[in-house]
Amino acid sequence: MSPSRNQRNGIRAALLSALVLGTTPILGKQAYLAGMDAYSLTALRTLAAALVLWAIFLSSKRRRKFIFIYPAGILISFAAGALNGFSSLLYYNGLTRIDAGIGQMLYALYPLFVVVVRRLDGQAISNWTKVRLVMALIAVALLVQVGSGQIDPVGAGLMLGAGFMYALHLAVSQRVLYEMPPQTVALYVLTAMTAVVWVAFLIHGPGDVTVAGLPPMFALGAITVFSRLMMFMGVKQLGSVQTALLGVTEILVAVFLAIATLGEQLVLRQWIGAVILICSLLLMLFEPGMGGLNLLARKARNPQPAAPPIGK
After folding, report:
1. 3-state DSSP call for residue 267?
2. Which of 97, 147, 167, 182 has its CA at a distance of 20 to 30 angstroms from the CA of residue 228?
């Protein structure tokens, strides 16, 4: 059975979300180098993203339909947004203590957490998903071994906590996406996320906001809007587990950008981990309903007939 149009759209959306999110740690590091602190960066980029999304949906009658949401839906969306807000706070604080590439690799363990959460919730996990998950974990294990350098344990813990919170937010979001369009879920999740990070920002107290830090901050805001819309579209069409596994692509983008722009380096075993990670992503073709294995089997059973000779 070939993947449906909705599944193909979901795959494209989830991959696009992961690709742009891979730039997040690089932009965060650039904002820190420009003098911004973690709380100011998190609060301002989330507020900018929420305001942009509200402005888009209020700008026309056709888009205003996405503002409607039923009471239970708004409660679930706000719960998901609160989890995402805590994840964001942990992530950007962890990023102040750890390299961008390594931090993203630790954060990228969130597919494991999604699988565990969904399994506890009663969702069946295919054998191919289990294989891909094991491969992804082996890849991450190889990637986080950093030569002779030491990883800051607090920074590593913050990144792992961010990944866990992000996984919970994906699992919770899937509940409301059964009945609501991804645009609506993105709007209210981002609104709740903004409320959570601003409470933390006000409790922490205002930090430095520099002119040089504004470009990466606004870039992060734009990425937040786009990635949330694409990510929720992926969750709606594929489910939280498959979207999370495709999200591991963030690692590759983050690592290559960290090398190119921040001068970070990988050792041989980390490159091996990157190759294993790519293979785990390609194996999605063989997931049930995605068409790869079934298509090969069908072609083996029913080879195409030879073309008749000309003139017959």
Report:
1. coil
2. 97
On the CB side of 147, CA atoms within 13 Å amount to 8
Q: Which residue has the tokens 């390609």?
A: 282
For 247, phi and psi rounded to 5 degrees?
-65, -15
Give the pLDDT confidence of 59-84 residue by residue, as tens digits: 988 889 999 988 888 999 999 999 99
Residues 39, 270: contact at Cβ < 8 Å?
no
Q: Which residue has the tokens 């089997």?
A: 297
Distance, CA of 242 to CA of 84 (rounded, Å): 19
Give the structural domain span for 49: 5-295
Domain count, the chain: 1
Nearest partner of 80 among 230, 189, 226, judged by Cα: 189
Residue 312 belongs to a domain? no
The pair phi, psi for residue 79, each rounded to 5°, is: -65, -45
**Residues in the chain, how many?**
312
Is residue 257 included in any domain, yes or no?
yes
Q: What is the pTM of this model?
A: 0.79
Hey, what are 308's tokens? 């008749």
